[in-house]
Design a protein that fits this description.
The protein is of the alpha/beta class. The protein has 16 helices and 12 strands. It has one domain: Aldolase class I (TIM Barrel, Alpha-Beta Barrel), CATH 3.20.20.70. Strand 6, helix 7 and strand 7 form a beta-alpha-beta unit. Helix 2 packs antiparallel against helix 16, helix 5 packs parallel to helix 16 and helix 15 crosses helix 16.
């Protein structure tokens, strides 16, 4: 057993991967994953809000066979845990997006590739036959957006996701404090953090150069200078993005189509009107606008507004299998995770992601057995009640 394998086996829940990721990554990169916007209230409330709900177990139910399968965005998956799009994944481990996509394939669940990925649409498609979705950021040049959509169709992606909450980047003050740059490069401010992680530095300089793989042919020569890639992308986000543009994207794609960043019943109804098949309730992990509600707090009212005409996916704060089941009981079809699998990736590459997915799968199965629900269709409104007071607890001890 290797040292990495032994460390991963000592992770018994999602939170256990955080310290391993911190020990593996240069300080600026760890805090890039960990941080949120402004005072980071929404970033932490996303998880804490699950404590508003209590599980009501049913007894004397036959739970010999547990069925966690579901169908979402046209894909039949073995678990309601999907992998959210995260940009620049190779910054956190040299195996990057390929490792995450292959881990998702092994668990037969949906992997989402970001526009800002460090592995191309085509290379990910070649690396895995598992269910795949592409997440689109709308850029100022319509030809680039159309090209990305057409490349996804040619590469047989199963679904398209339009992110609508990043027309300008949130105020991520941690990155200013740590000296985070894109691409990452030791600066006077961040030098110590990089010097303390020689394995990461070695991999960085001995692996193929990091680039925005889907956009590299559109980025002017010389844009590999520190911060210029990030400046290019931020400058390309289209603040004129509107419902008409979203409708045109849906028509061009002509397949399962999700809008990510929906935070109100009104917007969910509009998404349905313009041809979306799903909405992803998300505040971008608390990284955009601070003090907005946690996604779990919005599931029920959005489900009431759209009924079964629109699939609802929750993105944000999921750290336990019980969190997933609570979201499903309120009306979600599935949940997405982002930070948890990035921590696993940073800690141990593809085996780290697999360990995260395996722990969540086991937690969901155990909770279904103990609550007397043998299949996901029995995880309904009777599964939950509002707690008289939130069931908060101190942060778990680190052993």
């Amino acid at each position: 057993m290797t040292m990495t394998t032994a460390r991963l086996q000592r992770c018994f829940n999602v939170e256990d991967f955080g310290p391993l990721a911190r020990a593996s990554l240069p300080r600026p990169l760890y805090h890039y994953i960990e941080g949120g916007a402004d005072d980071e209230i929404s970033r932490y409330h996303n998880t804490e809000a699950f404590n508003r709900y209590q599980i009501i177990p049913r007894c004397l139910e036959d739970v010999t066979q547990i069925d966690m399968k579901t169908t979402v965005l046209g894909c039949t998956v073995d678990s309601p845990v999907l992998l959210a799009p995260t940009g620049m994944t190779r910054f956190f481990h040299h195996q990057g997006e390929r490792a995450v996509a292959q881990a998702a394939e092994g668990f037969n669940t949906l992997y989402s590739l970001s526009t800002l990925s460090t592995t191309s649409i085509e290379d990910v498609a070649a690396a895995t036959r598992g269910p795949k979705m592409f997440q689109l950021y709308v850029l100022r040049d319509p030809a680039i957006n159309e090209e990305l959509i057409d490349r996804c169709r040619a590469a047989n992606y199963d679904a398209l996701c339009l992110t609508v909450d990043t027309v300008v980047q949130g105020n991520r003050e941690r990155d200013l404090h740590t000296g985070m740059t894109v691409p990452p490069k030791p600066t006077l401010r961040s030098l110590v953090g990089f010097a303390q992680r020689p394995v990461w530095v070695y991999r960085y300089f001995t692996s193929p150069a990091l680039e925005m793989a889907n956009l590299s042919h559109h980025i002017a020569e010389g844009s590999s200078k520190v911060s210029s890639l990030g400046a290019y992308i931020n400058g390309q986000f289209d603040r004129a993005l509107n419902w008409r543009a979203a409708e045109q994207i849906a028509k061009r794609w002509q397949g399962p189509f999700a809008i990510k960043g929906v935070m109100s019943a009104e917007d969910a109804r509009r998404a349905l009107d313009i041809g979306a098949t799903a909405v992803i309730i998300s505040n971008h992990g608390g990284r955009q606008l601070d003090t907005v509600p946690a996604p779990i707090e919005l599931v029920a009212e959005i489900a009431d507004a759209v009924g079964d005409r629109l699939e609802i996916i929750l993105d944000g704060g999921v750290r336990r299998g019980t969190h997933v089941l609570k979201a499903l009981a309120l009306g979600a079809k599935a949940c997405m995770i982002g930070r948890p699998y990035l921590y696993g990736l940073a800690a141990g590459g593809q085996p780290g992601v697999e360990r995260v997915l395996g722990l969540l799968r086991d937690e969901i199965e155990r909770a279904m057995i103990l609550s007397g629900r043998a299949s996901l269709d029995k995880v309904d409104g009777s599964f939950l009640r509002l707690a008289p007071t939130p069931m908060n607890r101190p942060r778990a001890p680190r052993f």
